[in-house]
Amino acid sequence: MAGRGSRDRAERRGAGELEHAALAVLWATDRPLTPAEVQAGIDGALAYNTVHTILKRLYDKGLVLRDADGRRGAYRPAKDAAQLTAEAMHEALDRGPDPIGALRRFVTGLSAEQERALRELLSADGT
Fold first, then answer.
1. How far apart are alpha carbons 49 and 36 in whole angstroms?
2. Which of 52, 91, 121, 124 has the highest count of CB atoms within 10 angstroms of its CB?
3. Residue 123 Cα to chain centre, angstroms
4. Which helix (H) or strand (E) holds 20?
5. Residues ≥6 apart with Cβ < 8 Å to 32
């Protein structure tokens, strides 16, 4: 029984990783992809039904759209990777009791390149 609970937790973590992998495949192209094409892009050994379930979950979360025109059952991302990341960052700041403190800690952990880009973005907004 203990082994089964560990396996269930591993499968839940795996689902999030697989969702990210499916999104990465969709972000890498500019056209909608069928579940079979996503399957090939993730790992051809992954079961088709698993890929289809992942795409349905992403659709239910509003992260992918089903292509109604043309290819039946094709999917495309609803948001690009940068937009999804930015939304996650905003949500994380909104959840915490000290968003300014969180920003302070976040900024101190940036690489030199990321810090330079942030400074450029902030100075561009100020003009």
1. 10
2. 52
3. 29
4. helix 2-27
5. 67, 70, 71, 74, 75, 76
pLDDT, one tens digit per residue, over 58-115 is 999 999 999 876 556 899 999 999 999 999 999 999 999 999 999 999 999 999 999 9
DSSP character for 126? T
Closest C-alpha among 35, 29, 64, 56 to residue 47: 35
Q: Does domain 2-77 have CATH number 3.20.20.70?
A: no
The pTM for the full model equals 0.73
d(CA 27, CA 77): 7
Q: CA–CA separation, 109 vs 92, rounded Å?
A: 16
